[in-house]
């Protein structure tokens, strides 16, 4: 603390040093180390001293040490050679991710027959056998014979009361409603349409083509649009950017393209009609004008913002695209491979368990911090009441 310069000391009100001076006067007979510790404690409780120290530390934060500039020219040349080696490593890493993409394509072909069977069961194109429907219950979930018989009778009674449903009704709609990331996009007017969604598939780019993947949404014939297939393609960059090769950290989504939905007249849920009254300035007459404006809908997912190559985006467009990329990646990585678990809610429970553990840990840390603050005699909660900063897209 003795390193605080004269300028910093001049900025501190002499009155703020009274406590420090009192400690020095009262403890003259104590050991020098004990005096130094007490002096440090008193100074660290002084907000102006802390502010002065923080200002000096902030000045050091992130500033170059000057070490590189001090190196001899011959050493700088060798460092440049190391950086060139690093660029070559980045290109090898890009090749690694290309091979990973090839593996994804290979295993996607192995998964697909099972996904096709899933689709056939959902849309009632195939009725599974008793053996295929048998599911072993965990020991913890085992029921007594009496409970099993009661449950069987209740199911039979329900089946008698209603018509035999085909396949698994509203399978994908239920999946969407169970996942917060997707349910936030859903509007009430979207649900009747998504009842006709029969399958979602992931198609990877062909060998030798730029890395990309396409989400295919397959619909049965419906009254809302004539398409039976809606697509969304995500293009990825899988090689280092020449202008900034050290930023490469694997494939990243660069842009996405949707498709044109051929809406039936009067059924386009992405648009709504509003009526506005306009008053004539001169005559004072009023007329009603009908306007068509965009409407919130899940199906806006298929018309993402157009991003010209190399163009800079405003914050709103950047946020929309970032959310879009997250949704596309989530559908590809989680929803399509594990759809039945999101339908039953089991995947949701697993996600919640992971989140709760993290949340409890965070709560514990916050509790410790609050306890420390409450035990601090100089703690003033009003000083910590700082308005939250705006969230910005990174």
Q: How would you portray this structure in words?
A:
The chain is of the alpha+beta class. It is 48% helix and 12% strand. It has 14 helices and six strands. It has helices spanning 6-10, 18-26, 32-44, 47-60, 67-70, 73-122, 130-133, 145-161, 171-178, 180-183, 191-194, 315-335, 339-344, 346-375; strands at 197-204, 212-219, 229-237, 252-257, 271-279, 286-294.
Q: What is the first-to-last residue Cα distance?
A: 37 Å
Q: Low-confidence segments, ≥5 residues, pLDDT <50?
A: 1-30, 381-394
Share of residues in helices: 40-55%
- Described by the principal axes of the CA atoms, the overall outline is extended
| SSE string | HHHHHHHHHHHEEEEEEHHH
Count of alpha and pi helical runs? 14
Average of per-residue pLDDT values: 76
What's the story with the biggest beta sheet? 4 strands, antiparallel
Alpha-beta classification: alpha+beta
Radius of gyration: 32 Å
Note the beta-strand portion. 5-15%
Query: What strand order characterises the main sheet?
Result: 1-2-3-4
How many E strands? 6
